[in-house]
Amino acid sequence: MTMEHRKKQVGVEGLNVSYSNWFAKHFLRSTFENQWVIPEPLPRAVASFLRWYEKRCMRIDLTDIPIDKPIFIISLPRCGSSMLQDILCTHPKLAYTTNIMDICRSAPCAADHLRRKFGLNISGERFLKDSVIVDGGTPADPVATWADLFGEDYFEISDRQPDIDHLNTERREAIKTTIRQAIWCHGSAGRRFFCKTPMLLPYLGVLNALFPDAKFIHLIRDPRQGANSMRKVYRISNERLKEIRSRQGRPLPEEPFIPYPRLPRIKEYLERYGADDIRTTASLWNEAIDVVDRYRPDVRHLLEVRYEDILENPAGKMAELFAFCELEAPAKDNLAYQEKLQGIGVVHHKNRYQDFGTITEICREKMLRYSYRPD
């Protein structure tokens, strides 16, 4: 039973939420109501069942699944990467980590298989309240998946920079297995893996070393909007965490959650300015470009795209992106693609941004480099 066959509207913190059926509501409601950067763990019994089902009841052979020219969006948060991901993932040749797979990381194939088989789904606006609609089958921002793969504690602020030489064989194989699982879930044949999560920005060099034929899309946004929006995410993420922990009767972490990629000087900026200071996010905007520049000579396939250019010329920029990725443009009868293309720039929330002068002072040089007028 699919979302189209049966829907039930339930209010969750002011949002309209659609459940595909009673079972979806029963098993997934808590997951959606408590959605956050890191998905809440499944009940132990459910997680154990999924692992058993995947091991005993499914025939999953990953040995002959190639990882051919995987595609990664490299960007800061709030650069339009979710919008771009949703459009690209309408392509029939792409495979990706779905939200249900990011939630059920110990048995992603079983979770996605059962979601499809029994129509277990839930749909609604994500907790950032930024007009992005998500459900169990939509592409995830798989922070949890990649934090597990790289052994990151995302409540910890570390300035230790990723290095391929520090990534042991077990972790390298786990990354490749995770990618093959995503490809398997999407039907395997001829599929290319796609991923976007801003946490991968510091890992550009590692990903390039693991996958020399990978396609990297460096997505950039005007820092006056980007830095403001990043600060907004910091506030919303911590307000949301407080709500969830209060409902669950659990204490908050000792330190606020920092939803920014772990760039080399992040600890310095946090100590100097604080997490809720526009100078921190503006400085990270600068440093994100420095990180890409550091690895640029070694990356064979890197395309830089401005978010604003996609808004101005959606069809033209998407054609350029598909060509870069060595993918045929979606057919005219690909209704999902056409709908997403028409929806570019259409939002239902309002932003009130400020501190443009401070941001411009910090970012002026690189703004000019990317043709952002400082005045």
UniProtKB/TrEMBL annotation:
<dbReference type="InterPro" id="IPR027417">
    <property type="entry name" value="P-loop_NTPase"/>
</dbReference>
<dbReference type="Pfam" id="PF13469">
    <property type="entry name" value="Sulfotransfer_3"/>
</dbReference>
<dbReference type="InterPro" id="IPR052736">
    <property type="entry name" value="Stf3_sulfotransferase"/>
</dbReference>
<protein>
    <recommendedName>
        <fullName>Sulfotransferase</fullName>
    </recommendedName>
</protein>
